[in-house]
Design a protein that fits this description.
Required for the activity of the biotin synthase BioB. The protein has helices at 8-15, 41-44; strands at 61-65, 68-73, 77-80. The protein is an alpha+beta fold. The protein has one domain (5-30, 41-81). Strands 1-2-3 form a 3-stranded antiparallel beta sheet.
Length: 86
């Protein structure tokens, strides 16, 4: 898969921008912040790689490696867990 030129997803994660869509469920985050689904314990702890783009809610391509993960949104670019110190 060709990596998109955009760096919006990486910038959003590095700056700590509030997500619009939940990275584990793809559900739009309501104003009150209450999700309608129950997350797994590892997702609640922030240990799982994202599965959805937090900007657009699209499913992203994730590659799990022994030392972390890579995630690519076709619209908002790629991010590597090494940038997040995870």
């Amino acid at each position: 898969m060709k990596t998109p030129e955009s760096t919006e997803l990486l910038e959003a994660l590095l700056t700590g921008a509030a997500p619009i869509y939940h990275p584990n469920t793809g559900e739009k985050i309501p104003e009150d912040g209450e999700l309608t689904v129950t997350l797994s314990p590892s997702a609640r702890a922030g240990l799982e790689a994202p599965r959805y783009c937090q900007i657009c809610g699209r499913r992203i391509v994730v590659q799990i490696r022994p030392d972390g993960w890579d995630a690519i949104c076709s619209r908002h670019g790629a991010v590597d867990s090494k940038y997040l110190e995870r």
